[in-house]
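We store amino acids, tokens; thus:
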Amino acid sequence: MPLILSDLPHDLVEITIERHLKNEKEFWLTYPVPSVAASEPTFSPESYPKGSHSRRLWRGPTWINTNWSLVRALRQHGYADLAEQLAGKSRELILKSGFREYFNPYTGEGYGAENFGWSTLVIDM
């Protein structure tokens, strides 16, 4: 999320994108961008991990509202191609699972509320 800062120094933008966002072991999963890196020990792509009774909403699922912010940030920092890739992956999620609250970053399965409003941000992307 530091990418949303318009005055983030270019070297930090580059490091954040090249080492982390585009890293397939951290954030660039099948349906990016998970809410935490897949390499994080508490990462869980599902809202209710197997064997757990607690929800982990912000410990792994992909959220369209986060992607919307990142698409805007990527364009702002001169990464239009990467922004379009992320927007395209976000559209794929909606086409696959509908306007859901959040999504599994590996399978694209939709979770949480159905017909969820902020997923319509994909139209703006």
Observations:
- The two ends are 17 Å apart (CA to CA).
- The chain has three helices and two strands.
- The mean pLDDT is 92.
